[in-house]
Amino acid sequence: MDDEEARTRLLDAAEALFYAEGVQAVGMDRIRAESGVPLKRLYRIFPAKEALVTAYLERRDQRWTASLREAVAGSADPVAAVFEWLGRWFSEPDFRGCAFLNAYGELGAGPAGVLDVVRRHKAELRALLGDLVGPDREDLADQLLLLAEGATAVAALTPGPAPAVRAREAAHVLLNASRVG
């Protein structure tokens, strides 16, 4: 196994375990055991747990954001497409809320690398929503971000598409009100 394969195995194990059980509940030895990567190599690739958590979140951000962008690309109603995509995500059997806020909730502002990834992820989601509603509509993009984040938090407690459906309905109220005003 080369370092690239080892890195992939470590990130796959970290993502499955951290998302399902939490960052603090999972030790590096458990990551090693699940990945099949020797402990010495694990620490050579990720010298500290913070580095592994940061890499896990960065990789998740890339996949998550790319999937969302793909879902809204070419949609006649891209804002609705965001909430429809969220509804599908909320319905996945292993859905456990927002990995970024979960990690931040566990670790707080301590690990700078983790906090940076969380902030970048949220800024990227905000930018995507801003692109969808157009220029000079920052307030509307901020409101849509709150709807998306709120729906995600509610869905973490009650999985399924209903929070996304309600958030989509609220988004349309906001969009219609912004056209009138």
From TrEMBL:
Residue ranges of the annotated DNA-binding region, renumbered to this chain = 27-46
Check the record and name the InterPro entries matching this protein: Homeodomain-like_sf (IPR009057), HTH_TetR (IPR001647), Tet_transcr_reg_TetR-rel_C_sf (IPR036271)
Q: By its UniProt entry, which Pfam families does this protein fall under?
A: TetR_N
Listed SUPFAM superfamilies? Homeodomain-like, Tetracyclin repressor-like, C-terminal domain
> The organism sits in which domain of life?
Bacteria
Cite the entry's keywords alphabetically. Answer: DNA-binding, Transcription, Transcription regulation
Q: HTH tetR-type domain: which residues?
A: 4-64
Q: What PANTHER family does this protein's entry cite?
A: HTH-TYPE TRANSCRIPTIONAL REGULATOR YJDC, TRANSCRIPTIONAL REGULATORY PROTEIN
Name of this chain's protein: TetR/AcrR family transcriptional regulator
- Recorded source organism is Streptomyces goshikiensis
